[in-house]
TrEMBL record, chain A:
This is 2-oxoglutarate ferredoxin oxidoreductase subunit delta. Residues 19-48, 49-79 form the 4Fe-4S ferredoxin-type domain. It comes from the Bacteria. Pfam families: Fer4, Fer4_4. GO terms for molecular function: 4 iron, 4 sulfur cluster binding; metal ion binding. Keywords: 4Fe-4S, Iron, Iron-sulfur, Metal-binding. InterPro entries: 4Fe4S_Fe-S-bd, 4Fe4S_Fe_S_CS, Fe-S_Ferredoxin. Gene3D superfamilies: 3.30.70.20. PANTHER family: ADENYLYLSULFATE REDUCTASE, BETA SUBUNIT, BLR5484 PROTEIN.
From TrEMBL, chain B:
Keywords: Oxidoreductase. InterPro entries: 2-oxoacid:Fd_oxidoreductase, THDP-binding, TPP_enzyme_TPP-bd. It comes from Desulforamulus aeronauticus DSM 10349. The keyword Cell division does not apply. This is 2-oxoglutarate ferredoxin oxidoreductase subunit beta. Pfam families: TPP_enzyme_C. The keyword Oxidoreductase applies. It comes from the Bacteria. Residues 53-198 form the Thiamine pyrophosphate enzyme TPP-binding domain.
Length: 81, 269
């Protein structure tokens, strides 16, 4: 068996559904927990410390921001294919 | 909006009054996730709370809720459970509410082993009244009433509950949200008094006075200091000094109060 045969074909790995990070600005208190814990620097402080989805293309839908947000202001919305 | 928030919260009360970055919101999120997984009937579930930041929780939840007097959450919950043993009763209380003002109610609820799930939001301080030290403030930590550091030693709440007779005792932090949900589920399934101590962070009153940084820094502190019993065993005493064990700490079986009372009623006819 050669090495290349043991490599899993990437297309066979099930993918998480594509999601969109939505910030409810009316509930957000700008505490910065989501920004500090996002491993992919998707979120960032914008003008007036508004939490903005700065780099949505980097999101891997891990859900850490949604899980840690104490104000339930972040939702991962599943995008329709 | 998250479906569990939409279903179990009084949406007109949101956003809640807790400070930016407060851990209480994370605990409530884990609690409603646990209730969702347990498939509890919303009309047969009661939330009882006392006074303080943590006790505001009952007002945001869409169940039958009781916001009671200071320290008396467990006393009211005992009454609810005793009158209607078929209800699922959760007690949401803070560290000051539970261990200082309600200390006696706490040990006696544990002693009776009444079927309640008690979640203690331990933020180490009286946050709402301006940051006075509580019986759970660690030694040498600053509070507005201990500007040179706290002279007193804190309670070990979990050991107190075990000594008093609780049949399920666990501890976790707001960083370990998945574990928190699992512990609430396990605590609810226990037929008897269940205590889940949740180490939460108070960035405004405790963190600021003790220079603990941002809310995210305080969550990282919990991640680094809360460890499993197995990891704790392998540490030397020096390394153990600032660490605490998370997970199930005690689990046993004992006669449950309301069940025993029903038996007595049947016996007397």
């Amino acid at each position: 068996m050669t090495g290349s045969e043991s490599v899993t074909e990437l297309s066979s790995v099930p993918k998480l559904p594509q999601t969109k990070v939505v910030v409810n600005q009316a509930w957000c208190k700008k505490c910065g927990i989501c920004i500090a814990f996002c491993n992919k620097t998707v979120l960032a402080f914008g003008e007036g410390n508004r939490v903005e989805v700065a780099q949505p293309e980097k999101c891997v839908s891990c859900g850490i921001c949604e899980n840690f947000c104490p104000d339930y202001a972040i939702t991962l919305e599943v995008e329709e294919a | 909006m998250l479906p569990e928030i939409e279903q179990y919260f009084r949406l007109e009360k949101l956003p809640h009054m807790w400070c930016p970055g407060c851990g209480n919101g994370i605990i409530l999120h884990s609690l409603v996730k646990a209730i969702d997984k347990l498939c509890l009937d919303q009309d047969r579930t009661t939330m009882v709370s006392g006074i303080g930041c943590a006790a505001r929780a009952s007002g945001y939840l869409d169940f039958d809720t009781l916001h009671t007097t200071h320290g008396r959450a467990l006393a009211f919950a005992t009454g609810v459970k005793f009158a209607k043993p078929e209800l699922n009763v959760f007690v949401l209380t803070g560290d000051g509410d539970c261990t200082a003002i309600g200390g006696n109610h706490f040990i006696h609820a544990a002693r009776r082993n009444i079927n309640l799930t008690t979640i203690v939001f331990n933020n180490n301080i009286y946050g709402m009244t301006g940051g006075q030290y509580s019986p759970m403030t660690p030694n040498s930590c600053r509070a507005t009433t201990s500007p040179y550091g706290n002279l007193e030693r804190p309670f070990n709440l979990t050991e107190l509950a075990i000594a008093a007779g609780a049949t399920f005792v666990a501890r976790t932090t707001t960083y370990h949200t998945k574990q928190l949900t699992d512990l609430i589920i396990e605590g609810h399934k226990n037929k008897g008094f269940s205590l889940i101590e949740v180490i939460t962070h108070c960035p405004t009153s405790f963190g600021r006075q003790n220079k603990m940084g941002t809310p995210a820094d305080m969550l990282k502190w919990q991640r680094d200091h809360g460890i499993s019993a197995m990891r704790y065993e392998n540490l030397n005493p020096e390394e153990r000094a600032d660490k605490f064990i998370i997970g199930v700490l005690h689990k046993t079986e004992a006669p449950e109060y309301t069940t025993e009372y029903q038996k007595l009623l049947e016996k007397l006819g």
